[in-house]
Design goal:
This is (2Fe-2S) ferredoxin domain-containing protein. This protein is of the alpha+beta class. It has one domain: Glutaredoxin (3-Layer(aba) Sandwich), CATH 3.40.30. The protein is about 25% helix and about 15% strand. The chain contains two helices and four strands; from the N terminus they run βαβββα. It has a four-stranded mixed beta sheet with strand order 2-1-3-4, with helices on one face. Helix 1 links the parallel strand 1 and strand 2. Helix 1 crosses helix 2. It is globular, with a radius of gyration of 15 Å. Bound molecules: FE2/S2 (inorganic) cluster. The site of FE2/S2 (inorganic) cluster (FES) has 11 residues, from loops.
Length: about 110
């Protein structure tokens, strides 16, 4: 089978949001235990309400590997990691990153192991 020279990009951006839920006292922690799920629900609702679904993919992902840092999401193709704590933080990520193409700098998290 012959592959196209350039694979089509389905979305302009794709968000992966960690939705792993471990028990509250689990030693690894988890984004779910840190309050991620209501934030991701808000994010999905706002993407839909704003009509961004054709250009912004949104996928609830498994563990992204930085469990005590969460709630974490990562936006590609930039590979920018965010740690929102409130629905207002989610709204700022949408406005700044997705609509104005500027970082919501105070919500960016630089990860290290
Ligand atoms: S549980 Fe979210 S990064 Fe591991």
């Amino acid at each position: 089978m012959e592959l196209p020279e350039e694979l089509p990009q389905l979305y302009k951006r794709h968000i992966f949001a960690c939705s792993t839920q471990r028990p509250p006292m689990h030693p690894k922690g988890s984004c779910g235990a840190n309050g991620a799920l209501p934030l991701w629900e808000h994010l999905g609702n706002r993407i839909e309400a704003l009509g961004l679904g054709a250009e912004v993919g949104f996928t609830a992902s498994g563990c992204l590997g930085f469990c005590t840092t969460g709630p974490l999401l990562v936006i590609y193709p930039e590979g920018v990691w965010y740690r929102p704590k409130t629905t207002e933080d989610i709204d700022r990520i949408i406005t700044s990153h997705l609509q104005q193409e500027e970082l919501a700098e105070d919500l960016v998290v630089v990860l290290s192991r």
